[in-house]
């Protein structure tokens, strides 16, 4: 039975507040300075000094600016790290604008096909409503970037540099989503009218042509062939002519992207460890690589990341960056803010509870470039962010090991580092999760 708040209850609550001797001091602090400043624990900072027993030299950080391309920046950064070392190019970047163009274009087609697949459902259905909430966005996952590279390759940033819209994507996103929703109306009407599949695909092709034109105006026309001139760190001049994005990737990165797999830690009852999962309606390139996660314990999760770092390779990872994190100081630690003590309330939730009840999910992707091992156990991790060099230690963050336990959800590692039992588990067919599952969150 529902029960409204009574005036007597309010009087009791006020009486409880009045009898607390610390109440006015806390009230003055929080009203003046805010919750974070009032609850910050300066001592926590002393445990996150940026010194690591394994510390990869990865050069300067990149800057995604006012866009949600962290997943893309992080993935391309892992590739440029090996490229920079091999070819003496410490200040080199790959073009995030080039992959951004193709991601938007492929997401449009992916959206259209999902609209057609759900056209028999009412607009009030959860799947249709989920599709229309955000037809496309900047975010993505590792497997989606792999799908783009396998189809379109990559290029140096100098060949397809940033534009206003790639660095500040709100305008193109709102305009493109308007178009996609309008097109969804038409596609659903065509299906309802019994229009033939061929006629619908013909109309969809015209829609995609319009999307392509919009993206070319916003990001510039995508490069197909190019010459690459550069000077390396030793000031030596180089030129490589008549490259394609695919041949550039093969020559200068040369990774077998099928070797790199997504590992997650999601300790919820619906996802037993040592099994794989995918998410319905999550992706960009139709017919390309699907999103696939192997769920493992946190102990296995960390050991795989450490093995890759020990081999000299950085690690793409996804986390909930806004939780217990000081952006300006570049510190991610569970004790950096003590909100429980400030308000005298219990705010503790388990990692599984936060996932199940919508308190946390993956919001950001970065790169692990170091770890501090003490007696063989990790105590803190070095993180390369993509927010420029004005935050953290010239753009690098420190993540406590306890913070990794609570707020890290995904790493990408080479299959060679998986023990045999996890290799077998990773090869199995994935269980399909609902589109809104938290493991389908886009970084």
Per-chain topology:
Layout: H1 7-18, H2 23-33, H3 35-39, H4 42-45, E1 54-55, H5 70-87, H6 96-117, H7 126-133, H8 142-152, H9 164-167, H10 170-192, H11 197-219, E2 226-231, E3 237-243, H12 245-252, E4 260-264, E5 275-279, E6 293-295, H13 298-310, E7 315-319, E8 325-326, E9 331-332, H14 339-343, H15 351-356, E10 364-374, E11 377-384, E12 396-400, H16 401-407, E13 408-414, H17 420-426, E14 431-433
Helix pairs in contact: 6-10, 6-11, 10-11
Describe the protein.
The chain is an alpha+beta fold and 443 residues long. Helices cover 42% and strands 16% of the residues. It has 17 helices and 14 strands. The protein has helices at residues 7-18, 23-33, 35-39, 42-45, 70-87, 96-117, 126-133, 142-152, 164-167, 170-192, 197-219, 245-252, 298-310, 339-343, 351-356, 401-407, 420-426, and strands at 54-55, 226-231, 237-243, 260-264, 275-279, 293-295, 315-319, 325-326, 331-332, 364-374, 377-384, 396-400, 408-414, 431-433. β10 and β11 (377-384) form a beta hairpin. α6 runs parallel beside α10 (170-192). The two termini are 41 Å apart. The mean pLDDT is 96. Its main location: cytoplasm. It is found in: Cytoplasm. InterPro entries: Papain-like_cys_pep_sf (IPR038765), Pept_cys_AS (IPR000169), Pept_his_AS (IPR025660), Peptidase_C1B (IPR004134).
